[in-house]
Amino acid sequence: MYKKASLVLLAVLAVYTSTVNAQDTDPNLGIIPAPVLLKKASGQFVLSQETTVQADSPSNKAVLFFKDYLAKNQAYNKPVAVKSSRSSNVITLTAAGTDGLPAEGYRLTITPQQVIVAGKGAGLFYGVQTLLQLMPAEHAATIKLPAVQVEDYPRFGYRGQCLMLAAIFLE
After folding, report:
1. Is the pLDDT of residue 8 over 60?
2. How far apart are CA 69 and CA 71, in angstroms?
3. Which is nearest to 50 in space by CA: 81, 89, 93, 79?
4. pLDDT category, 156, cuts 50, 70, 90?
5. Which of 3, 150, 153, 157 is 20 to 30 Å from the Cα of 108, by its Cα?
6. Helix (H) or strand (E) holding 163
7. What is the mean pLDDT of residues 41-66?
């Protein structure tokens, strides 16, 4: 009896240890689905009450979604500014710089000075979703985001088959 219980406990510890180590060394920083391109850099961006959120179009649905998320989850209630020339301690949501990206694609660049999410239409929304995945789950006065460059776009024209396969493998 004790031998079986010991084996089960040992198996659980082995799985837990490998899971924790896998998370620490995740080359995709936990971003799901894995992006087409991800380059880590040194440093981090600190999101605080002094951070400005700016956008080409403050009424864009993705921009409003991001603003609402920050208000509900991070107690950040400042209005979104129309894109300006400010380049320090700012999060910019824009369609600029998306030339050459496929439909629904985006670029996310995080440096210690700024965050830029660039995408058109659904691409901007997907970029915001990736940015939110990089935010820690716990609430704090400041949020530290790793410096990174991400580029992503759908690799397949139809995603239904991919989602079905993912559901099969995850069962």
Report:
1. no
2. 5
3. 89
4. confident
5. 157
6. helix 160-170
7. 95
Round the CA-based radius of gyration of the chain to a whole number and report it.
19
Full-model pTM? 0.77
In sequence order, which residues have a C-beta less than 8 Å from that of residue 16 and are 6 or more positions away?
none
Q: Is the pLDDT of residue 166 over 60?
A: no
The region that residue 162 occupies, defined by phi over 0 for left and psi between -120 and 50 for alpha, beta otherwise, is alpha
Q: What is the pLDDT confidence band of residue 23, given thresholds at 50, 70 and 90?
A: very low
Provide the 3-class DSSP secondary structure of residue 141.
coil
Structural domain span for residue 111 = 32-170
Identity at 19, one-letter amino acid code: T
Q: Which residues pair with 108 in a beta bridge?
A: 117, 150
Q: Does residue 11 lie in a domain region?
A: no
Tokens, residue 124: 């901007």
Query: What's the CATH number where 79 sits?
Result: 3.30.379.10
Q: Return the residue matching tokens 């971003």.
A: 31
Q: What are phi and psi of 97, to 5 degrees?
A: 80, 20
Domain total of the chain: 1
User: Which of these, 131, 148, 164, lies nearest to 51 by C-alpha position?
Assistant: 131
The answer to whether 80 and 53 have CB atoms below 8 angstroms apart is yes
